[in-house]
């Protein structure tokens, strides 16, 4: 049997040995090469590999919450999930798409559009999902569906505090308002960790822990959520009722400078950025300056009293239709006779104020305006705060001196007005407004800007403004005495003159009048409907907000309601009662 | 003595060492295919065991083929060599037909058999071993004369060249030329022809490589893959990093990272890189030693057949040794950056049913030869002598 091929007597054996030898040599060479790679060059190769498969991940840090003075959150970050798909895999799972759509509560066409509308390897299906929902989706185990962790900033008050708080961008950095001003404090420091990743960027395992993530710190603001809410709704109602362009208001504690509410309208919903309108984002209470008008009169009087140019019992003859200064004609709405200081304020006499100013050295008025905070940023620390302008006194003409007396030729912000009136209410001590909570019982350092007696006199005279026949009677609050001042100023047209029919209406006041606790400034710009006076448009906003704020801050009423009615309410005229009852600017309407 | 039939005819004791090495490599291959393919399988199909399950089926099939091939009458294989060669050529033609042929990445290498895909070039290698062995044995002395004995071989190589390079499958054709050349060389081709053939084939392969620039880039990239780590040298760089990361003892089975989409072909042609990363140099050396011992056993079986005068069986064994040992060296060398980057499957380890089954068929025939010419211990030799004298 073995000899079927006699022609093939014998194979050359040495050739087979050579063949076997070659294979053997080859395998030995393989082993040598393995040694060279895995022992000699291992260091270099590992280093090259580390550049590819090691990844240094940031550990996400949550941004700190913004809390109101009672610890109620105004802005909080919550961890949320995003669901994304790899279309290369997901497109093969069409039969399971309805399942996913149902789990996400998405219409199937929307899911299809998103799955096909993304990139070749990545498409977001749903973002900002609650973690439970994402876990349920992952429980379906559909190939090609993945999640990643995001954080979402949520503002429980919505539009009510939006211009004050501002917002964060997609990277979680504050870019407006408190979020910007206190970004350093609020933001966390991401930690680091080194891990292995696959070539698609997915983490495989953690190799080494770096510094852990430092969570952002909570920020306790001086804002009171409820007062903020009342101020916003009252202001919004006034702006809507009088078809005004915009409005803003500030509520401040006169002793500590704590800002309790700071509102601006129109506002925006910070929880839904889709209705983005840049014009809505400004915080008007600190960013918009305007010519305040009559609300400046108390400071004219304070400056004149302080330097002795007039005394508290001085009287002024305003019995003229036209008080001529240089080429200008200064007028009052109603012609009065001889007025004392209380009446100048109560009836808001421009002629009286101009006469006082003309008796006062301009340097002293300028100094008064500057020391109560006009013409400079308040220091409350909000971004975008405007300093306003108080022109240097050396350049004042006689006409400018007269106009300054009743609030023209100067521009201010609502926050400055509140702080300046706060100085009057705080017996002549100016306290810098602040957004940070001051612990109860802490004595806040202020600076004296006028003598105690001058401040006390002004408090009394300003209380008269709210009484019967005063311009601010709509600011009266049952059970409390209120002091304040109205302002109705023509809007500058930006060409050196004024619009004929466009005004800014202002009310600034504090309560209770004889031991003031809270001060509030309300500005409504360019109302176009109804009686466009500060006492009609802005004062009711003050009344609604301040009455709520006094109760919320546990300020005891000055007198029982019955006594208040006997003293105040009965003395109202029918027309006044009707207006009062209409509750211009009341939140209920 | 009457044989029971053409199948289950070889009933002598097979080479147990070779048996065990083949089975160990099959099992080890299955484990490594799972480890290397799990990330890709998970990503592409959602089932991490996708490739491992298939490889397990192929492995079982290959083991069965291995066993039955070892029991089939060795003479039967010799009779089968022409039909098998014809079948191979037919299949190689079929890959170009639509519906029957399957194209992956522009290469027509597979035939659809309903559930499984057959790679005809693997069948061809098996058939070619039988065919050339038989041819060399039949021609005998005439092999030395080109006009009488040698030219048909060149015709076959030419046809195969056209079919394989059209696929295109450069690597398989190189293997075909190598196997044919080795069998002619071992079959006693005069040295003059050996030198001439070496020169001609070397020039031809070189010209082919140069004519296609991407092949040239592939051929030169292996010398310094770091010159273009994200282009021509990409795959090799990932492979080298895997070996470096593994070090001497490896990072542990399953803990490799390069298989996570860094290393292309991680469970087929570049599976040694995964072995090197997870089991380290120790694993690579152990594998090389297993291949060496297996090759040695195959060589020994061939030598016994040659000593018994069965030139066909001997040549077939040597051919299988070339296929098995040669492809092992080539695949490992490519993985380690010692050879141009070209796809060679690691024998008995890499994923792929066709190569596994047909290599096991060839190894089975070798085991069958070992049954026919068993290695005799000193006592058995003495006993046999007694029987003959008695």
From TrEMBL, chain B:
Entry's Gene Ontology cellular component terms: cell division site; plasma membrane
Listed GO MF terms: lipid-linked peptidoglycan transporter activity; peptidoglycan glycosyltransferase activity
Keyword NADP carried by entry: no
Pathway: Cell wall biogenesis; peptidoglycan biosynthesis
Keyword set, alphabetical order: Cell cycle, Cell division, Cell membrane, Cell shape, Cell wall biogenesis/degradation, Glycosyltransferase, Membrane, Peptidoglycan synthesis, Transferase, Transmembrane, Transmembrane helix
Catalytic activities: [GlcNAc-(1->4)-Mur2Ac(oyl-L-Ala-gamma-D-Glu-L-Lys-D-Ala-D-Ala)](n)-di-trans,octa-cis-undecaprenyl diphosphate + beta-D-GlcNAc-(1->4)-Mur2Ac(oyl-L-Ala-gamma-D-Glu-L-Lys-D-Ala-D-Ala)-di-trans,octa-cis-undecaprenyl diphosphate = [GlcNAc-(1->4)-Mur2Ac(oyl-L-Ala-gamma-D-Glu-L-Lys-D-Ala-D-Ala)](n+1)-di-trans,octa-cis-undecaprenyl diphosphate + di-trans,octa-cis-undecaprenyl diphosphate + H(+)
Regions that span the bilayer: 17-36, 48-69, 81-102, 114-137, 149-166, 173-196, 270-293, 305-324, 344-369
GO BP annotations listed: cell division; cell wall organization; peptidoglycan biosynthetic process; regulation of cell shape
EC number: 2.4.99.28
Principal subcellular localization: membrane
Topology of the protein relative to the lipid bilayer: Multi-pass membrane protein
One Pfam assignment: FTSW_RODA_SPOVE
Localization (cell): Cell membrane
Family classification: Belongs to the SEDS family. FtsW subfamily.
Name of the protein in question: Probable peptidoglycan glycosyltransferase FtsW
Species of provenance: Acidithiobacillus sulfuriphilus
Gene: ftsW
């Amino acid at each position: 049997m073995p000899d079927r091929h006699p022609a093939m007597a014998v194979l050359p054996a040495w050739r087979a040995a050579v063949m076997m030898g070659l294979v053997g040599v080859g395998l030995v060479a393989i082993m040598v090469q393995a040694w060279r790679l895995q022992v000699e060059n291992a260091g270099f190769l590992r280093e090259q590999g580390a550049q590819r498969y090691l990844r240094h991940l940031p550990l996400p840090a949550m941004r700190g919450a913004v809390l109101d003075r009672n610890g109620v959150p105004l802005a909080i970050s919550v961890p949320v999930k995003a669901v994304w798909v790899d279309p290369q895999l997901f497109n093969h799972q069409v039969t399971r798409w309805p399942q996913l759509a149902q789990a996400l509560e998405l219409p199937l066409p929307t899911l299809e559009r998103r799955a096909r509308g993304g990139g070749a390897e990545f498409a977001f299906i749903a973002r900002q999902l609650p973690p439970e929902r994402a876990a349920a989706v992952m429980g379906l185990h559909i190939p090609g569906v993945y999640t990643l962790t995001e954080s979402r900033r949520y503002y429980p008050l919505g539009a009510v505090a939006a211009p004050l708080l501002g917002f964060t961008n997609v990277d979680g950095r504050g870019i407006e308002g408190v979020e910007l001003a206190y970004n350093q404090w609020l933001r966390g420091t991401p930690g680091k960790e080194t891990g292995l990743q696959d070539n698609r960027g997915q983490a495989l395992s953690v190799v080494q822990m770096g510094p852990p993530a430092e969570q952002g710190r909570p920020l306790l603001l001086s804002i009171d959520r409820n007062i903020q809410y009342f101020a916003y709704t009252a202001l919004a109602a006034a702006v809507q009722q009088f078809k005004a362009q915009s409005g803003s208001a500030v509520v401040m504690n006169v002793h500590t400078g704590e800002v309790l509410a700071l509102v601006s309208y129109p506002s925006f919903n910070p929880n839904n950025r889709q209705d983005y309108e840049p014009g809505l984002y400004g915080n008007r209470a600190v960013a918009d300056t305007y010519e305040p008008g009559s609300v400046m009169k108390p400071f004219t009087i304070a400056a004149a009293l302080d330097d002795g140019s007039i005394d508290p019992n001085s009287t002024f003859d305003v019995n003229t239709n036209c008080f001529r200064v240089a080429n200008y004609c200064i007028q009052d709405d109603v012609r009065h006779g001889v007025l004392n200081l209380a009446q100048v304020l109560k009836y808001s006499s421009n002629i009286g104020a101009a006469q006082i100013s003309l008796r006062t050295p301009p340097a002293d008025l300028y100094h008064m305006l500057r020391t109560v905070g006009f013409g400079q940023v308040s220091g409350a620390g909000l971004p975008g705060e405007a300093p306003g302008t108080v022109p240097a006194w050396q350049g004042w003409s006689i006409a400018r001196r007269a106009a300054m007396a009743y609030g023209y030729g100067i521009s201010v912000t609502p926050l400055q007005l509140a702080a300046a009136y706060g100085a009057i209410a705080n017996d002549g001590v100016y306290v810098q407004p602040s957004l940070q909570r001051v612990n109860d019982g802490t004595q806040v350092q202020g600076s004296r800007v006028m003598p105690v007696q001058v401040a006390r006199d002004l408090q009394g005279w300003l209380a008269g403004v709210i009484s019967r026949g005063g311009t601010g009677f709509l600011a009266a609050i049952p059970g409390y005495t209120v002091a304040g001042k109205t302002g109705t100023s023509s809007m500058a047209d930006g060409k050196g003159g004024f619009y004929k029919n466009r005004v800014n209406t202002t009310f600034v006041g504090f309560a209770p009048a004889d031991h003031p606790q809270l001060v509030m400034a309300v500005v409504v710009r360019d109302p176009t409907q109804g009686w466009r006076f500060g006492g009609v448009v802005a004062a009711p906003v003050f009344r609604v907000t301040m009455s709520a704020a006094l109760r919320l801050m546990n300020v005891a009423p000055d007198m029982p309601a019955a006594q208040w009615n006997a003293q105040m309410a009965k003395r109202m005229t029918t027309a006044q009662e009707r207006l009062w009852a209409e509750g211009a600017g009341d939140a209920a309407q | 003595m009457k044989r029971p039939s053409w199948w289950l005819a070889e009933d002598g004791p097979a080479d147990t060492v070779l048996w065990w090495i083949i089975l160990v490599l099959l099992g080890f291959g299955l484990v490594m295919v799972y480890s290397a393919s799990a990330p890709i399988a998970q990503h592409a199909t959602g089932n991490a065991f996708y490739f491992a399950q298939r490889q397990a089926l192929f492995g079982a099939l290959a083991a069965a083929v291995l066993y039955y091939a070892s029991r089939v009458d060795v003479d039967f294989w010799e009779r089968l060599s022409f039909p098998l060669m014809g079948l191979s050529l037919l299949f190689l033609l079929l890959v170009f037909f639509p519906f029957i042929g399957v194209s992956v990445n522009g290469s027509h290498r597979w035939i659809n058999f309903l559930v499984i895909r057959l790679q005809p070039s693997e069948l061809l290698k098996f058939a070619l071993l039988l065919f050339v062995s038989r041819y060399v044995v039949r021609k005998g002395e005439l092999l030395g004369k080109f006009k009488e004995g040698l030219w048909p071989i060149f015709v076959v190589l030419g046809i195969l060249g056209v079919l394989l390079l059209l696929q295109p499958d450069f690597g398989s054709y190189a293997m075909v030329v190598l196997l044919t050349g080795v069998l002619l060389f071992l079959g006693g081709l005069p040295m003059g022809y050996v030198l001439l053939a070496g020169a001609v084939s070397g020039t031809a392969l070189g010209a082919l490589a140069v004519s296609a620039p991407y092949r040239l880039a592939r051929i030169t990239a292996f010398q310094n893959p770091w010159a273009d780590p994200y282009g021509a040298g990409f795959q090799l760089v990932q492979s080298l990093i895997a070996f470096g990361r593994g070090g001497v003892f490896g990072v542990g089975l399953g803990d490799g990272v390069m298989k996570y989409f860094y290393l292309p072909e991680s469970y087929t042609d570049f599976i040694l890189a995964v072995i090197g990363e997870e089991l380290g140099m120790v694993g690579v050396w152990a594998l090389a030693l297993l291949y060496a011992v297996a090759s040695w056993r195959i060589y020994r079986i061939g030598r016994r057949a040659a000593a018994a005068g069965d030139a066909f069986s001997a040549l077939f064994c040597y051919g299988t040794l070339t296929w098995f040992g040669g492809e092992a060296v080539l695949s490992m060398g490519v993985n380690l950056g010692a050879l141009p980057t070209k796809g060679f499957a690691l024998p008995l380890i890499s994923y792929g049913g066709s190569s596994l089954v047909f290599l096991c068929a060839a190894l089975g025939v070798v085991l069958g030869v070992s049954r026919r010419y068993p290695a005799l211990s000193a006592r058995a030799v003495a006993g046999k002598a007694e029987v003959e004298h008695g």
